[in-house]
Amino acid sequence: MTHTKIIKIYLYTRFERFWHWLQAIMILFLLITGFEIHGTYTLLGYKTAVFTHNFVGLSWLVLFAFFVFWVFTTGEWRQYIPTTKKLFDVIIYYSFGIFQGKPHPVEKTPGAKHNPLQRLTYLALSALLLPVQMLTGILYYTWNTWNTWSGMGIPLAPVAMIHTFVAFMLLSFLLVHVYMTTTGHSLFSHIAGMITGWEEIYETTPIQEWELPEKRRV
Amino acid sequence: MTKIQTAQKSITAGLIKFLCSLIIIVLMLVPQTIKASSNTEETIDAPGRTLARQAVKREKRWITTDHSKHEALKKDFMSGDEITEACLSCHSEASTQFHKTIHWTWLASGEPQTDSEKTDSEKKDKTDRNYGKAGYSVNNFCISANNMQDKACLKCHTGWNGKTGKVNCLKCHGSEQFNYTEAFTDIKAFAEESKDDPSVLEIMKEIQGEVKAAVEKITLPQRDNCGQCHFKGGGGDGVKHGDLDTSLMKPNKRLDVHMGIDGKNFTCTRCHTTTNHNIAGRIYTNPAVESSKSLLEDDLAPKITCVSCHSETPHKTASKMNDHTDRVACQSCHIPDFARVNPTKMSWNWSKAGDLKDGKPYDIIGDLGKETYKSIKGEMTWEKNVKPVYFWSNGTQTSTTAVDIIDPSTVVKVSQPVGSVNDRDSRIYPFKLHKGKQPYDKVNKTLLTPLLSGPKGYWTTFNWDESLTIGSEMLGLPFSGEFDFVESTYVFPITHMVAPKDMALNCTECHTRETGRLESLAEFYMPGRDRFKLIDSLGWLVVLGSLAGVSLHGLGRFFTRNGKK
């Protein structure tokens, strides 16, 4: 295995990388300002934290709209279809195999850049956590307006509660996500891949039939 | 060309693009951040300021008459009533109008102040209670005016002799603070006693000349007129309100951004607008206005509220502060503290009154140059730069009058704001909370109304039994003869001494974990102050768990060297 030649394939397109990193910065910034607004610490000053949190939050909506457009028009959404096949292999690899120098059970290929565990995680992130966070964010931001308008007297508390909870989940994701980037062929190879678009894989890795979307299957 | 070379080229190009994007993003965010954090370099005014500037833009009010040229005023007056007759010879309806206002009646229930939507029973309730200084209203300062029979209180009534004489127009319209009572007492004495003595007559003429000179100086009500009573309510400068004292005679902008003589220089009546001598403002249970409207919505609305001129969304368009205005009164942030120049009285313990030194009453002067003890009044405390307390308020207040039953085991709320978080018309308002300890009837369970001034008053006799008996009789109320002192509170809405915008409260005065100004208003979720302990604990557990997990995993990889030999 150690003799297998490492080659680079172009895995992440320009927009994908732009979206990924911009979103990364935004999430980081929103976490930092968000926890200040939550009262966890003082950093930028409350007024600045609130203003910038709202500004970046609203900007993120625009970016996310572009992401949704991109993921559907390019067919990339197929990369997020969940599967349980080899899921446990991947879990076992990260739990044990990685310490024993065993190969990753599912290598990246242009047709399937996410392993089954990633598929599940990113689907949960893009389809659940982020939309919930955006929705509660909008409700939080416009609470006075819609609450006055609807006249129902819905308290801010549940909105704030969900928004805070998801923020914790996103922070947790961020920590694990950043750590996982170090598990590539070298410590920074995954990060380099997301910056340049070129990801290192073993030359011999064949794309598995099950990994392909139905249309592309031979 | 090999694949590796292509890849390297792409890496360089990709890196450059990535860095460029980063720089662009950061540059995009920077100006917004700076804009949000700097207050001093703002060049564009907030919409609320622009609107207010336009609302008060008109030129100074002009006057078409010179009272010093009026024949009616060029006579030798023998009494105050004669002056009023002279006024009424032209302003024929003034007295009739004025007799209906609370400045004359001292009763809040006589005339409805606004066209309210209140039910008849609510109106009747107010009438029955007979609110007002001339009614059953009490406070925890000098307690009661004893049906207008406590003469010391009448100094501030707008008549020449209580409600039995004519209206004293000069109280509000005379620009010279002239002691007419003393002058007319002298004139009367001279006239009666020594009619034939030419030297006495000359002195009399001289005094009448002084009266005439003062009478000619007619004005629209100025701060000095309103302030003589409203700055000194409760028997001295700044005793009652805390946001109204003699420092507002000539304030600078820092003390009052509207009245500052170095700024807009508003008189009281600039906001307290008047219809038929009825002056806009809060009166006991009646709010200043039924609903806040801007002049854009109703150009004839009274200018008594902030919204009138500043609109409901006075801050800059993108500002989150505009989202506060539906639940937080402007005053709450824009009056950081009150009594910023002169001290105000914060507590008054009547139970300590009556201590004498060698049989004589005495005073003790405290740090702020104010009495902390007076034999005639008891123990009191004064404070400067006082942080308000905050309550939900719909603009009205309930009060405990001399006929209401109290619970002496509790602190009696002599006046209390009405409102709650669930009432959409309520907003968070700042208040001065004055603590008192005042006499009550142990049998009837009512607050008592001692007579204070005059030969039979407590200030002369130091006899509670007698002054309480007489005081109650004056109001026609029973007194069992058994009394004690009960703790009480009285609230004043804080609405004057609006500070310039740079002195407005920072977010963290309220949006902070524990020691915020709104700590006691707990019925709603406020970002920065509130959190769900369970969510926070669970959240941090997950985050720290993740951190611990990846750390252990990383260490595992380090020590096993990823399983490589």
From TrEMBL, chain A:
Location(s), subcellular: Cell membrane
Pfam families xref list: Ni_hydr_CYTB
UniProt cross-references to InterPro entries, sorted A to Z: Cyt_b561_bac/Ni-Hgenase, Di-haem_cyt_TM, Hydrogenase_cytochrome, Ni-dep_Hydgase_cyt-B
Transmembrane segments: 21-44, 50-72, 122-143, 155-180
Residue ranges constituting the Cytochrome b561 bacterial/Ni-hydrogenase domain according to the UniProt record: 12-197
PANTHER family xref list: CYTOCHROME YDHU-RELATED (PTHR30485:SF1), NI/FE-HYDROGENASE 1 B-TYPE CYTOCHROME SUBUNIT (PTHR30485)
Name the UniProt record assigns to this protein: Cytochrome b561
Species annotation: Desulfamplus magnetovallimortis
From TrEMBL, chain B:
Keyword Transmembrane helix on entry: yes
Keywords: Membrane, Signal, Transmembrane, Transmembrane helix
Recorded superkingdom: Bacteria
SUPFAM superfamilies per record: Multiheme cytochromes (SSF48695)
Pfam families named in the record: Cytochrome_cB (PF11783), Mtrc-MtrF_II-IV_dom (PF22113)
Ranges of Basic and acidic residues composition bias in the record: 115-129
GO molecular function: oxidoreductase activity
Domain Outer membrane cytochrome MtrC/MtrF-like: 148-315
Keyword Cell wall biogenesis/degradation: no
Region of interest (Disordered), residue spans: 109-129
Coiled coil spans: none
Signal peptide: none
Residue ranges crossing the lipid bilayer per the database entry: 12-30, 538-559
InterPro entries membership: Mtrc-MtrF-like_dom_II/IV, Multihaem_cyt_sf, Multiheme_Cytochr_ET, Octahem_Cyt_c
Name by which UniProt lists this protein: Cytochrome c family protein
